[in-house]
Specification:
Strand content: 5-15%
Largest sheet: 4 strands, antiparallel
Number of strands: 4
Number of domains: 1
Shape: elongated
Strand order of the largest sheet: 1-2-3-4
CATH superfamily: Outer membrane efflux proteins (OEP)
Radius of gyration: 38 Å
Order of helices and strands: HHHHEEHHHHEEHH
Structural class: alpha+beta
Helix content: 55-70%
CATH architecture: Up-down Bundle
Length: 452
């Protein structure tokens, strides 16, 4: 009996293996991409490897170090990474057969037959979906895994943009604070000149009050800038997965990047590389697989099996006494609920049409975003050159001339304060333009999916 059962089991397993086959090339490619990303982005997962990623951020860290640290430690990005892995593991499940069914029957009262009493019955059954059902289920799972990969890439790009955005914003605040402190010292120096002149009767007391008011205004603006550093630092620390009140080390200087690209080139890169559009491309392919799968619901699944009956020896010397019968079974389900299958097919077509319209809407929105970011990039570059080449040099010259004229008693103190305010705003606007230029470039990189 045991030998017969073993033979029956081997035949059944061979039938299942031949039916379900091996992993497809698309499945293998999807897993290969995941393992490559795992090795590149999370080398610490293997404790035997020594990672060259920065273990901490300090005053010597560059922007690239901040990005690498964020990629390695940000929990949101890790969550996207493991959702990708989750989707990959569903591929094998989707192409697998249902579990085989094992039946055992023990005859409480033995069934008497000519060749002897039947004592027990053992059976195995396996259900096989209609041809191509497993293939389409696997296709849907593969396309879903590909979409999850692009969601991971999208999360990485958004994370890098967040790091860059608040990195540049924090740098701007540092520079603005330095400039504001320098101007406070300048106005304090001018206040002393005014007070000295007032004591000698060469200046009116109203100008002393003006100098004091100007200092108070500058101190108030300085306090606002210093306070604003805290929430900006918290947002940067959030991306780096550090406590919100962690101190930010002195950042490396930001300068204008001398790069040239056209709006059309940016839009081409957007259409080719943007992860959001790739996600929707895979969604369309997935919903197309859903249509194909829904069309197979009209066809039946079938079940095959085998049963073995253990028969004892007959009491008399009967031919074939104790011979154990083996039976083969076959059954199918009958798909008679046409309206249900038709509704499922309509649902699949509706999802496919929705995905097609979603990618059109997303394309329109993203192209508009690129145009806006490109305008901001160009506008910031224009302002950088305006302030650095024209306004700041002329403002410095104007302040020097006005200060000399005031000290000589030829220019009113109000004109001196106006010149000081102008050069202050020119310097702040220049630093703001540098930060805007870097932030808009970072946004363009996020939208186009590549470093520019």
């Amino acid at each position: 009996m045991l030998m017969k059962l073993k033979f029956l089991k081997i035949e059944f397993c061979l039938l299942i293996i031949l039916t379900i086959g091996c992993a497809s090339s698309n499945e293998r490619d999807a897993f290969d991409r995941f393992h490559e990303e795992e090795r590149n982005s999370y080398p610490y997962a293997d404790k035997s490897q020594v990672s060259d990623q920065p273990s901490e951020i300090d005053e010597n860290s560059t922007l690239a170090d901040h990005l690498a640290y964020a990629a390695l430690n940000n929990p949101g990005l890790k969550a996207s990474f493991y959702r990708w892995k989750e989707a990959l593991e569903k591929i094998t499940q989707s192409r697998s057969l249902p579990d085989p069914r094992f039946n055992y029957t023990y005859f409480i009262k033995e069934v008497e037959t000519r060749v002897g009493p039947q004592e027990q019955k053992i059976g195995l059954m396996q259900t096989f979906p209609w041809l191509s059902k497993l293939k389409f289920r696997e296709k849907i799972a593969v396309e879903n895994a590909n979409a999850m990969q692009q969601k991971y890439e999208e999360a990485k790009l958004k994370l890098f943009f967040q790091v860059k955005k608040y990195y540049y914003e924090y740098y701007y605040l540092e520079r603005a604070i330095d400039i504001m402190r320098e101007n406070i010292e300048l106005v304090k120096y001018l206040e002393e000149i005014v007070r000295t002149k007032y004591r000698t009767g060469k200046e009116v007391y109203a100008n002393v009050i003006k100098a004091e008011l100007e200092i108070d205004i500058l101190i108030d603006r300085l306090k606002s800038l210093e306070d604003f550093r805290k929430p900006v630092a918290a947002k940067l620390n959030e991306a780096l997965n550090r406590p919100a009140d962690t101190l930010i080390a002195r950042l490396e200087p930001v300068s204008e990047k001398q790069i040239e690209f056209s709006e059309d080139e940016l839009i081409d890169s957007l259409m080719e590389n943007n992860p959001e559009l790739k996600i929707l491309d895979y969604e369309i392919a997935k919903e197309k697989g859903g249509i194909d799968l829904a069309g197979k619901n009209y066809f039946p699944d079938f079940t095959i099996g085998a049963e073995y009956i253990d028969t004892d020896e007959a009491l008399n010397n009967t031919p074939d006494s104790g011979k154990d019968p083996i039976m083969v079974m076959f059954s199918i389900n009958i798909p008679v609920w046409y309206n249900k299958y038709r509704a499922n097919e309509k649902e699949a077509h509706a999802k496919w049409r929705a995905a097609n319209n979603s990618i059109i809407a997303a394309s329109n929105s993203l192209i508009a975003d690129v145009k806006m970011a490109f305008y901001q990039f160009c506008d910031a570059r224009r302002r950088i050159r305006l302030y650095s080449n024209n306004l700041i040099p002329k403002g410095i010259e104007s302040l020097e001339v006005t200060q000399k004229g005031f000290e000589a008693g030829k220019i009113d103190f109000t004109d001196l304060i106006d010149a000081e305010r102008a050069i202050l705003e020119f310097h702040l606007s220049y630093e703001r333009a540098l930060a805007d230029h870097a932030q808009s470039l970072a946004r363009l990189e996020m939208l186009t999916g590549k470093e520019l």
